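Forwarding the complex inputs:
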Amino acid sequence: MAGGRKQKAAAAPSRPQTTLVLDNGAWTLKAGLVRDGAVPEPRVIPNCLARDRSKKIYVASELERCRDLSEIQFRRPVEKGYLVNWEAQKEIWDQELFGDGGKAGPLKCDPGDTRLILTEQPNALPVLQTNCDQIVFEEYGFSSYYRGIGPTFNAYHDLQSLFRTPKDAPTAANVPAEIMLVVDAGFSHTTVTPLLGGRPLHSAIRRIDIGGKFLTNYMARLISLRHFDMRNDLYIVNEMKEAACYVSADFKADLERTWKGTRGGDDSNNKRRDDYLSGAGGIVKDYVLPDFHTRHKGILRDYDPARHTKAKKLAAAAAAAGGGGGGGGVGAEEDVLTLRNERFAVPELIFRPSDVGMRQPGLADAIQQSLHELPVGLWPGLLANIVVVGGTSLFDGFIQRLQRELVQLVPDDCIVRVARPADPITNTWYGAANMANHANIEKVVVTKQEYEEHGSAWIARRFATGLLT
Amino acid sequence: MNNFGVIEIASAKTTSAPGWAYVPDTGALPGANALQPANRKRARNAPAGVTAGDLTARQEAKIRKEIEALERDGGKDSLIPIPAKSGKGMSAGKHTPNVRKILQSQKTFSNHLDDFLAMQAQAEGGPTAASNNRPTNASSKRPAGKRDAASATPTVTTKDEDTAMVDADLPPILVGSYRPPPAAHPGDNDPLLVSRVPPVPSDAELRKLLAHPPLTYYEARGKWEDNYPTRTFCEVCGYWGRVRCMKCGTRVCALDCMETHREECVTRYGL
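Prediction (whole assembly, two chains):
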C-alpha cells in the first residue's frame, strides 16, 4: 500500500526479475509469481466476499473455511467480466497477494520491484481501464505493468501439441501461435477472439452474454419451479451444475426421452412412460443435496426408480398417519433432487440463447459472425485452430457439440478442429506466465516512470494497439 | 389480466446509485426497438397470421424481466460490507486523490456503461462542444484526460499513430510453411482434383486488420439474426411447448402440465 509513495524503488530503472501474473476472473482469480523463467502453479482463489447465514464474512480464500454454505451471499468486484468495484477488489488483492498489514500474504509480492501482467476481458470500457491503470501505479506502485486481453495469452502455448498435429518442424520455443481462434467461456460471458501471432483482431471479437453465472441462475430457476426454492442457494446450484450438466449431442432425442408423455394408454405411450420411470437410459440422475452436517458436498448418483417409489410410499404412509405435513422430501435423512432435462437444457443456452428469449446468437453463430468480419483467406487457419478455455467449457460434450455445429456452418473445404486444454481454467494464466518469460516482454510493458510522465490516457492508447512481438 | 391499459415498455433501466449517471436518450440500446410493444392485444386474441415466434408486449416484458433476473449475480441485492480490520484506518489517508475517488465510487457496471454511451453520443453529436466544455481547474485534470481517452479510443483518431509505427521492413505476419511443398504429381492439374484455397491476405491487409481499434461493448455483442424460428418450451416440465394457455399464453406441453400450470395461472398486474 505504501509502495506507491516509494520514489526510490521507481527511480531504479533496473529490470524487475519477478513478474506477478494475475488473471483476474469474476469467479476466481489466478495468481502466481514468475521468477527467472520458472513457472510455478498458480493459486486459484475465489474472487469474492462472502457472507454466510450467521452474517460472518469471508474474504476470498477464507471461503474454504466456511462450513455452512447454504444461503451464502456473494459480492464480486468483477461485474460482467470487468473489474468494477475496486473497494472490494483491493481488499482481496491486499489479503491474497501482498500481505495485509503485519500478516504476510500467501504470495508475498512486493509491488515495488515486480512487473504486473494483468488480464482483462476484450471490449472493456475505457473508464474502467483507466481506473485499473491508476490503481496499479498510484496505489500499488508496480514497477512495470502490462494489461492485456485475456484470450490473447492463450497463444503462448504449444498449440499444435494440443491438437496432436504431427510436427513438420520443431516449433521455436515460446513464440505465440501464428493464427488461432480462442473461445473463452467464463463466468460472465463467452467471447470469441481471433488471434494473429498473439494479437487480437479487434474488429472480429464477438461476445455472447451467457456464462456460468447465467446458467447457474437459469438452473436455480428451473429447480425452484419444479422442486424447491433454491434461488438463494446459488453456490449449491453451481456445484450441482458442475457435477450434473452436460451438453447434449442430440438435444431433440434427449428431450424426447426425458418427457413423461401424454395421458392415455396406447402402446407407444406406455413404452415412453416406462422409459421415463426407469431413468431414460441414464440421463436422469439423482443429486443428493449437502446438509452441511454430515455431508458437505452434494453427490450425483444414478437414478434408482426403486428408491423413489419406496420413498413415495413411505411419504404417503407418513402423510396418512400424521394427517398432514405433505411437503416432506423424498427421504427422511437426505434431500434428493431428480434431475431430468435440466441436465442438458441448461448448457444448451450457450448454443441457443434464444431458448430463454434472449436475442443473441448461439456460440457457433457468433464464431461465424466473427469470421465474416475477416478475409476468407484467414478462415482455414482460424477454423483449424479453435481453442476453448474458461470454466464453462468444462461441460461434457461441449467441444464435440461446438465442432459439429461449426462444421455445418462453414464451407466444406475448411477443416474444423476444436480443442480444450487440459485445464481450461488456468490456461490463460499459464499463457500469460509464458509471455512473462518472453524476451520481448520489456517492449510491451509500461513502467511507472512512463506512467508518471505521460499519464493514463497515453497508457490506454498504448495497450490498445496490442502486442508487437 | 386487466392492467388498465398500462403496458410496460422496454427501457434501459438503471439501478440507483450515489452520484449521477448520464442516461442515453433513446436508440442507444440495439434491440430496444424490437422490444417495443407492437401489439396491445390480449394473448388469446392475437390477430390472425401471427406465427408462434411472435409475442405480445406482455410476454416480451416478462421475458425481458426474466433475463434481467438471470443476469443478476446472487439472489438478493444486499451489499456485503468490507470487514473492518484493526490498524487499517490509518492507511486510509494515504491514497492519492484519484485512488480515493476510484475506491469510493459505488458505481456499478451498468452505471459506467450508461456514462460511456452518453459520452459516445456526445462525441458523435458535437465533438467541438465536448472539447470546449472541458473543465479547466487543476484538480480535475485527470478526469479530463480520462474523458479524452474514453472518447478517443473508440473512434479512429488514434489510427494515424498506429500506422506511423508500422515500418515497411517489419517481418511478415504470416510466414509460409517450414516444409517445402510436396513433389509435383501428374494429376495436379486435373480440374476435378484441384483444390481451391482462398488466397492468404497480403501483409498490408493483415496489418490494417491488426491496427483496427477495439470495438465498444455493444458493438462486440453478437448480432441477433432472425433466421430460424425460436424454440419454445413447456414452462412446467421443459419439453417442447406445444400448446398455449388460453388465459395467459404460457406454453405447456400437454394436459398434465396444463393442469399444473392452471393451478398457478394468475394474471398479476405488471407481470
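Chain A touches chain B through 108 residues (CB under 8 Å).
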